[in-house]
Amino acid sequence: xxxxxxxxxxxxxxxxxxxxxxxxxxxxxxxxxxxxxxxxxxxxxxxxxxxxxxxxxxxxx
Length: 61
Description:
By secondary structure, this protein is mainly α. It contains 1 helix and no strands.
């Protein structure tokens, strides 16, 4: 095991940390996009069902 003197950060630490941060951020963005897509589909379907019911039941006449 390569031991660094106390208080000194290994040169490989910063690139590893940057990579991990980038991967976490990419996963967060991907999750947010997925959630937004599902919510938009849900709202669209809700709106379609309301319109269908309005036409079938004469709501808002």
